[in-house]
Design a protein that fits this description.
The chain is an alpha/beta fold. The chain has one domain (3-277): Rossmann fold (3-Layer(aba) Sandwich), CATH 3.40.50.1820. The protein has eleven helices and eight strands. The chain has helices spanning 40-45, 70-83, 95-106, 134-149, 152-162, 171-183, 187-196, 200-203, 227-237, 255-258, 260-277, and strands at residues 3-7, 10-17, 22-26, 49-53, 88-93, 111-117, 213-218, 243-248. Strand 7 (213-218), helix 9 (227-237) and strand 8 form a beta-alpha-beta unit. The longest helix is centred in the C-terminal third of the chain and has 18 residues, at 260-277. The chain is globular and about 45 Å long. The chain starts with a strand and ends with a helix. InterPro entries: AB_hydrolase_1, AB_hydrolase_fold, AB_hydrolase_sf, Epox_hydrolase-like. This is Alpha/beta hydrolase.
């Protein structure tokens, strides 16, 4: 059942299942909380209360917002955690990975640990050498085209590249839901606004994080020529001993949707190890 929380600038939609310690799931741009449809049930079965959130401008959240930065998204997520009586483990994908960094740095009492899935958390630069890698070239051109032109077909084409190899069993339905959402007024504008935002605000907060952070990267992520190097750079920018990197072989930019069992296993191991250490 969808619930709604009014925050400064609009309304955030979310859905809660289960009982126990709180885990909040935040998706990437051009998506909705449905991205975690295969992740929520096993986390609930493992004894957690799981809140899947629609980012500002996405899913069932209100469409028209004044800003799209990771800091803005972090404020929304912190409001949800606060409303649900945190603290929480915060899981963020792509742009929300950067937002998770900001949230953890700003409110250490509310975020016990953070999981960043294929995160855009550091300032990025496209190098010509990277474009020699076919998957990067194909993904970058489609991603830029979708953002600049506001093209749904190019976004769908990017998703095809971002999910290399095997697709989820409900792939056609997944694409249909994404396409239907982006047809709604203001939804493509949200994708474009997030695409134009830069991760500098998140990168500036990495050194201020005080909780453990798990970074998960796919070896075939088309957004980076060397996903391992990007994940390592995020971990290295955190205070010593807080970060941990895990690679998922064969995964693209959506490891939680391509390999949900593997991601759930990593999250549960990470959270339980952190709890035991505390």
């Amino acid at each position: 059942m969808t619930e709604y929380l009014a925050v400064d600038g609009g309304t955030i939609a979310y859905e809660v299942a289960g009982s126990g310690p709180l885990i909040v799931l935040a998706h990437g741009m051009g998506d909705s909380r449905a991205a975690y449809r295969a992740v929520v049930p096993p986390l609930v079965a493992a004894g957690f209360r799981v809140a899947a959130v629609d980012l500002r401008g996405c899913g069932e959240s209100s469409a028209d917002w004044p800003a799209w930065s990771r800091t803005d998204i972090a404020g929304d997520l912190l409001a949800v955690v606060r409303h649900l009586g945190g603290p929480a483990v915060l899981v963020g994908h792509s742009i929300s990975g950067g937002a998770a960094t900001v949230a953890a740095a700003r409110e250490p009492s509310l975020i016990t640990s953070a999981v960043e899935l294929a995160p855009f958390t550091r300032a990025q630069s496209v190098r010509l050498g990277d474009l020699r890698v076919r998957r990067v070239r194909r993904g970058t051109l489609r991603l830029l085209g979708a953002g600049v032109l506001g093209s749904r077909p190019l976004w769908r084409s990017y998703l095809d590249v971002a999910y290399p190899g095997a697709k989820p069993a409900d792939w056609a339905e997944r694409l249909g839901r994404v396409d239907a959402m982006l047809r709604e007024p203001g939804r493509m504008k949200a994708l474009q606004g997030m695409g134009r935002s830069t991760p500098g605000d998140a990168g500036a907060q990495l050194a201020n994080v005080r909780c453990p952070v798990l970074v998960v990267m796919g070896t075939l992520d088309p957004d980076w020529a060397d996903p391992r190097a990007e994940g390592t750079a995020v971990v290295d920018a955190l205070p010593p001993g807080l970060g941990r990197l895990e690679m998922i072989e064969g995964a693209g930019h959506y490891p939680h949707d391509q390999f949900p069992e593997r991601v759930v296993s990593l999250v549960l191991d990470f959270v339980r190890t952190d709890a035991a250490r505390a």
